[in-house]
Amino acid sequence: MVPQQCLMMVAAMLMALGSNAFTIPSSSRNSPLFMSSTDDDGMLKLTKEKGYVPKWKKKETLADLTGTADLSAGDKGLIGSVPITFQQGKGEAATIIETTALPGQPLKLVASQAGQFIKYGCGKGECGTCESLCNGKYLRPCVDVVPTDLELDAETGKYPTLLIQVKGTKAKVVSSGKFFSVKSFILGFWNNLLGMMGFVRDRRKAKKNWQERMDKEAEVKRLTEEKKRRRAEEAAMGNTKAQ
Q1: Where is the composition biased (Basic and acidic residues) (predicted)?
Q2: Does 89 map to a domain?
Q3: pLDDT tens for residues 103-113?
Q4: 176-189: per-residue pLDDT in tens?
């Protein structure tokens, strides 16, 4: 009976709210970040206010501060005979970073020196979070190193370029004004109801336990007073006999 009553109550609340349940909260409307306007259908929409200056900005790296972000690997002081190209993403949005490394040098260190971000997980080569594609073969930069069995090019006398395709990363967008589904709303209401029922139950048990403890303390107090009274009577009888 209780779940049915809860469902009826939630349904009545949703019917009472109507279309207002899907409108934008008034707190967002009054926010200095946005300015409200209406479209042709009369629906309220929010747009960023012109001239707004954010209170935070992206931190500059050491390369940005010193102006060495666009320098080549040799100009940066990186040494090595194996040319390596890091590619992150595909198409026009792909980023390319060229550097050099020594045979046997950890790829994790090479990427860090070149400024290539790689998302790591376990750091032991087990989870596959950092797995990348290098010239048709998969490797894991957290544990793999620059190959030491590379052969020199017969024409140029140099090592061939290693193209390491790194997985693209993107920021997770979290919306604070998202309207949850009716199912999640009902389940949340039901969980809160169960929590209140459990609170009442535990409160009754605690009250009963407290009453039992108070009764025991009263009994101990009564026995102690009775024992003191008997000792006082025995002491008085002993004094009477001595006289």
Answers
A1: 210-234
A2: yes
A3: 889 999 898 88
A4: 555 567 888 888 88
- Residue 11 CA to residue 18 CA, distance in Å, equals 11
On whether the CB atoms of residues 23 and 43 are closer than 8 A, the answer is no
- 102 domain residue, yes or no: yes
The answer to whether residue 141 sits within a structural domain is yes
Same structural domain for residues 16 and 85? Answer: no
Give me the residue label for tokens 């894991």.
140
- CA distances to 80, 100, 143, 150, 161 from 157, in Å: 15, 16, 29, 12, 12
Q: How many CB atoms lie within 10 A of CB 103?
A: 14
* CB of 163 closer than 8 Å to CB of 87: yes
Q: Which residues contact 107 (CB under 8 A, 6 or more apart)?
A: 101, 139, 141, 144, 145, 146, 164
Tell me, what's the pLDDT at 179? 59
The number of folded domains in the chain is 2
Do 122 and 34 share a domain, yes or no? no
Q: Residue 143: what pLDDT?
A: 92
